[in-house]
Structure formats: C-alpha cells, structure tokens
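The data are quoted verbatim here:
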Amino acid sequence: MGLKNEGIIEDKARELHEKTLEEIKKKKQQLKKQKKFDRANRSRTVSFVGALINVCKADRRPWDGIGGKAAKKMVGMLAAAVANSNPYTTALGILAGPMANSIDKPDVYGHVELHYRGNIAAVANLGVQNDSFTPQWNNVAWRQIDINEAYLRISLFDKDLLDNDSIGIFEIGSELLKEAAAKGQVLPVQVSEQTNGQVLFGLISVQ
C-alpha cells in the first residue's frame, strides 16, 4: 500500500514537473514573440486615413443649415449605434443610408500632428473633402516611427464661406497605435467623448 502511494505521488510530481516545463516553454515563446513585436514597433508606418463625422453640431444644428429634423432623428440613432457591440459598422451604415442624403454635410479639412517624445515631430495637412460625413485621406503617412513613444493629434474643421466651424480636436495615443499594428488593418478609434460627439471615429493604419 505504501509503495503504491509512493508511485502515485511520483507520477503526480512528474506530471506537475512536465506541466511546469511546458508553461515555462510557452512563456518563453510568448516573450520572444513580444520582443520581436516590440522591436517592430520601433519602426512602423503610421497613417491617419479618415473619420466619421456626426450629422450635426453638438447644439443639434446641422453643419450647413439644411436637414435639421432628419439630423435630430439621426443623432439619436448614432448615439445608440456608438453604444452597441459593433459601433463603427453600425454608425457607418446609418451615415451611408438614405436619411443622410437630406442633410447638408460638412466640407471637412484639417491637419494631423505627429507627437514624438513630447514634441511635435511633423504636421500634415488634410485637404478639403466636400460634403462628407465619412471623409478619407491617403496622403498622411510617416515611416520609421517608434510608436512606443508617439501619438497623433488631429484637428478637423468645416470649411464655410464666412466662418469655418471646428468639428473636433482629438488624440490617438500610443496604445491605440500598437493595437492597430497588432491587427494589421485600419482601426476605427472612438473619439466622440473627446469632441463633444461631433467626431464619432478617427481611422488609423499602422504597418
């Protein structure tokens, strides 16, 4: 009986030892992978590619004066969309729908600042995208950027004949740049809380 118990104890100890070795091996592999990813993050291409703009200003007035009733209805729809489990796709579907056609859209322009180690390292202008809730740009990209120490600050405006309206100013931090790099595709970043609801999402790509 004693020998049998000793054998069981030895088997359990061996099993625990093998399990521990396997866990150590996995942790080493994960660490190696993380170090490789961290090295890659020191030389990334960072792009700002677009935004999703709300259908009206924070005070519920449309951007260019026409479509107030439809805009007020869509504001509620977009607020619900941003709160659901798939916010970007849902909001994009609403802004691309027929109701949005009755609302005057902003003429969106602005600039993007690349901040690196506490300083503004570069600034890129965003050309005017006329009549759009979903403006896109393909000219804003910086190469060989260490995203561990970088972030973006984006300023968007609505170009008008007299006074240009501020649409929103928002930042996209280092952790989100690293998330975009890990996903390897365009990442929608929810920024409505930074812009009083006027900009819903900023779109970035990090390769």
User: Anything to note?
Assistant: Residues 145 and 191 are 23 Å apart (CA to CA).
